[in-house]
Amino acid sequence: MQKINLKDIYTTCFVIIGTIIGAGFASGQEIYTFFNKYGVKGLIGIFISIVLIAYIIYKTFKIILKNDINNYQEFIENVMPERLLTNKMIGLTINNIINIFLLISFNIMVAGFATYFMQELNISKWYGAILIAILAFITLSNNSNGVIKINTFLVPTIILLIAFLGINKIEYTEIINQNSKNSIYWILSSILYASYNSITLIPILISIKNKIKTKSESLLLTIIVTIIMLILSIIIFLLMNTFISEIYKVEIPIVYIANTMGKGFKYMYGIVILMAIFTTAICAGYGFLNNVTKTKRSYLFCAAFICLVSILIGQMGFSNLINLLYPIFGYLGILQLIFIIIH
Question: Cα–Cα distance between 343 and 337 in angstroms, integer?
Answer without folding.
Answer: 10
